[in-house]
């Protein structure tokens, strides 16, 4: 099927970039496991590290259609996608500006590795136009944002950042993982490069490790040139599994949107919850921005328990919700960012960002709302008895 942006999200998830079984006419895409292809008498020389095997190319077309871009590339992890995209546009002597509220892995990549490459970097703690503008230098080449952010669900004004970058002739990049293409298409607001940990909502079943980058053909070609040297590719079987998973992404994410919003409202009224972070709540400081640029508010939320509750004990008491490291699966998972995603930050830095020891990041799955609430209630009640 030739994908078109006029198709609905579920149609794109199912049919865009479809790899047809021309031999046996099966209903699902065939899987080409070869790592070695002919080089004589062929239109294109295929090589797995060159991102051009049949399954890779087909899935890249699907992701490009979902993100409204000309092209896309697949990677072995979200961090492989992040690092390759950044290093494709940065070299010794350049400067990159990033928002401070970032996934811990991205923060560590920049702070632990970029100095070795001679790349300068700055973070902006505020997400205003002035805050970004004040940090731009003569050697700035890239502005990198993440929205909604991990784990506090801050929302950055995508269009503002895109316009600012165009004004200063900078490359704009966004980590769109928490939103997914179902809830947000940054290209529509002028962003240059969209990055995903495809492990999360695209995979959606906690059994795939992958990353993706979507952008114009020109930008993707530059990322390809860097990527073929860094070698962060994806196995063919994982590509096939990811393509299968994306078919239901629209259905999954919309269901998670609905339940997460209901749970955010429930938690915001709970006496043992100090604060809830969810962009779909009107009390969220970035609610209006989120409403303007998101089609759904996502399945991720964070909440801080009161000091009277032991967060670790609460996690141990849960029976349905799984204390688990990752997110965005069909099963609900929860973790302490202070001990997982942001554990490498100093306690001072974590607290400065608002990540307390009682902050919990909650990835809402597709279970029934009442079952999830019942599990939270029994876990909190058990904490009182300990």
Q: How would you describe the overall organization of this protein?
A:
The protein is an alpha/beta fold. The chain contains 14 helices and 12 strands. The chain has helices at 9-15, 54-66, 78-89, 104-113, 129-135, 158-167, 180-183, 217-230, 236-246, 249-268, 287-293, 311-317, 347-353, 369-385; strands spanning 71-75, 95-99, 120-124, 140-146, 171-175, 193-196, 211-215, 273-277, 300-305, 322-323, 333-335, 359-363. The strands form 2 sheets. A 7-stranded mixed beta sheet has the order 1-7-6-5-4-2-3, with helices on both faces. Helix 1 (9-15) runs antiparallel to helix 2 and helix 12 packs across helix 14 (369-385).
Q: Work out the strand percent.
A: 5-15%
Biggest sheet, in brief?
A: 7 strands, mixed
Supply the helix-strand structural class: alpha/beta
**Shape summary:** globular
Count of distinct strands = 12
Helices and strands, with pairings:
Layout: H1 9-15, H2 54-66, E1 71-75, H3 78-89, E2 95-99, H4 104-113, E3 120-124, H5 129-135, E4 140-146, H6 158-167, E5 171-175, H7 180-183, E6 193-196, E7 211-215, H8 217-230, H9 236-246, H10 249-268, E8 273-277, H11 287-293, E9 300-305, H12 311-317, E10 322-323, E11 333-335, H13 347-353, E12 359-363, H14 369-385
Helix pairs in contact: 1-2, 2-9, 3-8, 12-14
């Amino acid at each position: 099927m030739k994908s078109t942006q006029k198709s609905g999200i579920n149609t794109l998830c199912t049919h865009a970039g479809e790899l047809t079984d021309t031999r046996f006419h099966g209903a699902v895409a065939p899987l080409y496991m070869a790592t070695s292809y002919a080089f004589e008498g062929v239109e294109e020389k295929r090589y797995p590290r060159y991102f051009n095997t049949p399954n890779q190319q087909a899935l890249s077309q699907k992701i490009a259609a979902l993100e409204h871009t000309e092209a896309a590339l697949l990677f072995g992890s979200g961090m492989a996608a992040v690092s390759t995209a950044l290093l494709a546009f940065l070299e010794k002597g350049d400067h990159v500006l990033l928002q401070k509220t970032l996934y811990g892995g991205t923060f560590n990549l920049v702070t632990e590795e970029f100095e070795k490459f001679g790349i300068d970097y700055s973070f902006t703690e505020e997400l205003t136009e002035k805050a970004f503008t004040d940090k731009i230098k003569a050697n700035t080449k890239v502005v990198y944002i993440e929205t909604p952010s991990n784990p506090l669900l801050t929302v950055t004004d995508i269009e503002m950042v895109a316009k600012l970058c165009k004004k200063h002739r900078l490359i704009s990049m966004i980590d769109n993982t928490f939103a997914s293409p179902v809830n947000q298409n940054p290209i529509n607001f002028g962003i240059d490069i969209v990055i995903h940990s495809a492990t999360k909502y695209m995979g959606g079943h906690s059994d795939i490790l992958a990353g993706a980058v979507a952008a114009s053909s020109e930008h993707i070609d530059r990322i390809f040139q860097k990527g073929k040297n860094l070698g962060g590719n994806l196995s063919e079987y994982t590509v096939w599994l990811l393509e299968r998973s994306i078919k239901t992404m629209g259905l999954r994410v919309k269901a998670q949107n609905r339940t997460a919003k209901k749970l955010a409202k429930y938690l915001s009224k709970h006496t043992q919850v100090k604060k809830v972070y969810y962009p779909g709540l009107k009390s969220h400081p970035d609610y209006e921005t989120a409403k303007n640029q998101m089609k759904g508010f996502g399945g991720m939320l964070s909440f801080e328990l009161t000091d009277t509750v032991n967060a670790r004990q609460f996690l141990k008491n849960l029976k349905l919700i799984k204390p688990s490291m990752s997110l965005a699966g069909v099963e609900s998972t929860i973790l302490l960012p202070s001990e997982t995603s942001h554990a490498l930050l100093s306690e001072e830095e974590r607290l400065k960002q608002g990540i307390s020891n009682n902050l919990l990041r909650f990835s809402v799955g597709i279970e029934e709302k009442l079952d999830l609430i019942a599990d939270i209630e029994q876990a909190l009640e058990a904490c009182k008895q300990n």
